[in-house]
Design brief:
Helix content: 40-55%
Number of helices: 6
Order of helices and strands: HHHHEEHEEEEH
Radius of gyration: 28 Å
Structural class: alpha+beta
Length: 187
Amino acid sequence: MSKQTQANAILATSVGIGLDRQTIIDEIAAQTDSGPAYAATLYRNANKAFAVVETPAADGSMTKFTNPNLDKLRDEIDAALDAVAANHGITLKIGNIRYDTDRMSFTTTIEANVGSAEDKSRKDWNLYCSAYGFKASDFGRTFTTPKGKTYKIAGINPKARVRPITAHSVPGGSEFGFTADVLKLLK
């Protein structure tokens, strides 16, 4: 049994009988033959892994923040954002949640995307394709490399200096970058 597994077990039994932090660290140090500093690290890691079950207040409000109740809160926030997004035809997403037992904060990273990724790729293709010697109608065209692999043109990235043409492998859909010269030879 690893020292961390032992520390997890000690913490699980100690919390149930109401021991304080220092007593639990001393117990971990004694049972795992560790020094106090390493025992404190084991305690900290065990505390992260050990989800304390919260007893909710009588009115159903949270009394402290824990992983389980923040997961539930995230689900409710995501459901609310999904309802708003559905009304407007966009995608909304919440960012990371950071918390202590008595305080939480989260950066709301709301990503609003109008249309699909393929629409953006097609717009970019239509805008930049002529600079690389292609036609707008070449978007979505399949080609075969000299090694016999087949790809479908999926877009263009003018910021990529060496391989600006994006293509997906036909069996599988993995994305690859190609030089404009190679694709011109394959026309």
